[in-house]
Write a structure and sequence with these properties.
The protein contains four helices and 31 strands. The protein is mostly beta strands.
């Protein structure tokens, strides 16, 4: 069933949170399980003006506040909410087991959750069927967040995909765990021995990045990515939809996307859907590439056939140039925030900010692994959705893929009216200490 919003047309007088979309498991936090067609305001489970990040997984959602509190709701059959039970939750509820442990970032995978504390420790909960919790010899699921003891360095960025997860440490090292990419790797790279990080159920260092320093990691359904402090973007995993900007069907080790793909500019921020990516360069140009059959690239391809996934011999090289080549979207030049869902995007168009004066702390925002910047003082601005539909909407966005088989999605957004205040510019850098 679908429910239309009862929210009034007038803008809220103060900061507010809105949610809409797929809701079969209560992942919108509205207290029911009916889909919502129009943005509906959530009850104030916390001070909306203090929300630092919003993210979602297969059918669960998480909110982190400026004070480091974690609120969760939605599907919980594997304990992915970390509440100590497996009952679905229809309202945003505090994760009491983490009270007194300030949270920096949360990454929601399909049926699991990765949590980064402000002191750089990583915890996990939910399904562990594919080793995605990073706990060797652990149970098939954890209903309370458990520390990933093998990550001994301070972590600054985390990401969660369909059945794998990543972390970047303060020294710039990238770790990966979970066997989600292994089956594709074995099928597409017959006869090759896959690197340990593709098959490990505990954090394993990603080889091939030794000469770079990662500041941000991302995870798609079957691929991974890392952004370095030099503005270089590395990708690996499945390239079924051209999301790795490569001619190979599968990249078992990281490969840099050459600078000429971004008009010889450094990448300042990158966002990730299930099978497509969005990047913004240092001058504000926005590029998209990867899967396009739902319009998620926001541009017209050369032919209708390019929108359809094609079956091919795994031994053959991938040949989807129109989708696998990053291409800029002029209408999104200077976008101040971008968010990717499983098969859609949203972008905020507004004035730039002066980071030194704003107090904003850039931080990765994971569903599908996007990196965004959150902070106070956002103003209401225009939002452009993939397909380039324009709507008057808020400044702080998160997209969450749904567990529905027909690829419905749910979205949450934050409005913080503050006329004259600066707005955040997306950037992937280590979180402020």
């Amino acid at each position: 069933m679908e429910r239309e919003s009862n929210a009034t047309a007038a803008a809220p007088a103060a900061a507010a949170l809105f949610a809409w979309g797929a809701n079969s498991y209560g992942q919108l936090g509205l207290g029911h399980k009916e889909d919502v067609l129009l943005p509906q305001q959530l009850s104030d489970f916390c001070n909306p003006g203090c929300v630092k990040s919003i993210t979602g997984g297969g059918a669960h959602s998480a909110v982190v506040t400026d004070e480091g509190s974690l609120f969760v709701c939605g599907l919980n059959k594997d304990g992915q909410l970390g509440l100590g039970h497996t009952e679905d939750v229809l309202y945003f509820t505090p994760c009491k087991s983490l009270l007194g442990c300030p949270i920096q970032q949360v990454a929601c995978g399909w049926d699991f959750t990765i949590i980064l504390t402000e002191n750089g420790q990583v915890l996990s909960c939910g399904s562990n069927s594919f080793g995605q919790l990073g706990i060797p010899h652990g149970p098939r699921r954890c209903v309370v967040p458990q520390a990933i003891e093998l990550l001994r360095e301070k972590v600054v960025s985390i990401a969660a995909g369909l059945r794998h997860a990543l972390a970047a440490t303060a020294s710039g090292t990238v770790f990966q765990w979970g066997t989600g990419l292994a089956s594709s790797g074995r099928r597409l790279c017959p006869g090759q021995t896959l690197p340990l990080f593709l098959t490990a159920k505990e954090p394993s260092r990603v080889t091939g990045l030794e000469n770079s320093q990662a500041v941000c990691v991302l995870a798609g359904s079957d691929h991974s990515a890392s952004l370095t402090d030099a503005g270089e973007l590395f990708v690996w995993g499945s390239n079924k939809h051209g999301q790795l900007a490569s001619q190979a069907a599968f990249l078992p080790v990281p490969q840099k996307i050459e600078a000429h793909c971004f008009q010889n500019e450094k990448v300042a921020a990158v966002w990730n859907g299930w099978t497509h990516l969005v990047a913004q360069t240092e001058t504000g140009k926005v590029f998209t590439w990867g899967r396009a059959d739902y319009g998620q690239l926001g541009r017209t391809l050369e032919s209708h056939e390019d929108w359809k996934p094609k079956k091919q011999d795994p031994s053959l090289r991938c040949s989807r140039p129109s989708k696998s080549t990053p291409s800029s979207l002029h209408c999104l030049m200077g976008a101040t925030e971008v968010s990717c869902g499983s098969e859609h995007n949203l972008a905020v168009i507004g004035p730039r900010l002066c980071p030194a004066k704003s107090g904003i702390r850039p931080q990765p925002n994971p569903q599908g692994g996007p990196c965004t910047a959150e902070g106070k003082g956002h103003t209401q601005r225009q939002v452009k959705c993939s397909g380039l539909k324009r709507t008057a909407a808020p400044a702080h966005l998160a997209s969450a893929s749904s567990a529905f088989p027909d690829a419905l999605t749910c979205l949450l957004a934050q409005t913080v009216p503050a006329p004259g205040s600066p707005v955040s510019t997306p950037a992937c850098h280590p979180p402020a200490s």
